[in-house]
Here is the input.
Amino acid sequence: MNGIVFDIKRYAVHDGPGIRTTIFLKGCPLRCLWCHNPESFSPKIEEFNQTNRLAEKSVTTRVKIGKEYTTNQLVKEIEKDQLFFDQSQGGVTFSGGEPLLQLDFLEVMLKECKQMDIHTVVDTSGFAPKENLQRISENVDLFLFDLKQMNDKDHRQLTGVSNQQILDNLSYLIEQKTNLIIRFPMIPGFNDSKVNVMKMIEFLTNLTSQAEIHILPYHRIGKDKYARFNKENRMPEIPSMKEEDTVWAKELFEQAGFKVSIGG
Ligand code: SF4
Here is the structure.
């Protein structure tokens, strides 16, 4: 079985516990305005010519985004880092894009990792049929689950999709007592209102008193990728957010009894 991967990041320390190898699976049904990985959007391998000026010359290179891996090939890549996993209680994180878009491949890879006794994380937008989450859950040690905007109309404008399925899936995982961390990418002017934070708190307190939340302040690191990968950047020019600008939201979540940290 083959999957399409657009990046493998080794020694990652923000994608779950310990030192991790993060596998970025290509394809995402969302189009978040602030996305740092626009090269993930298409589920297919992409190729195009890119022309750059070098001194007085124009140099054209062929750029390829994505690479096909068999499960065996990807297992071999993962095995190279086993020592780091063992020493740091780390493991493998499947991210994207939306990793659930390559469900069959993801399912096999998660099973392979569990057979090797490797800790597994799935970093998801939550936008997938519930049955797909159910299929993989038993082989996932931890979900990193994005929660972006509680107002459905605003969510559609920011990401291109409704939040209904995402909220349903989050409710389901919490009800199942699944191990998860909620990640709140906080984007100035888009979802950093007190109303949005209070609605998140209301939604979560109806489900649990023990959520763990990571607030991710907006930063512009993905900005240059849009030009590099021939993608339209619809995000207006706004400065990166300082950590201290998110403290008020952290305090509100904490007052509701949740465990909160700022950053990944
Ligand atoms: S869900 Fe993640 S990968 Fe997909 S568009 Fe949004 S930020 Fe990008």
Remarks:
- The chain has a mean pLDDT of 96.
- The longest strand covers residues 2-12.
- Residues 15 and 143 are 10 Å apart (CA to CA).
- The chain is about 30% helix and 25% strand.
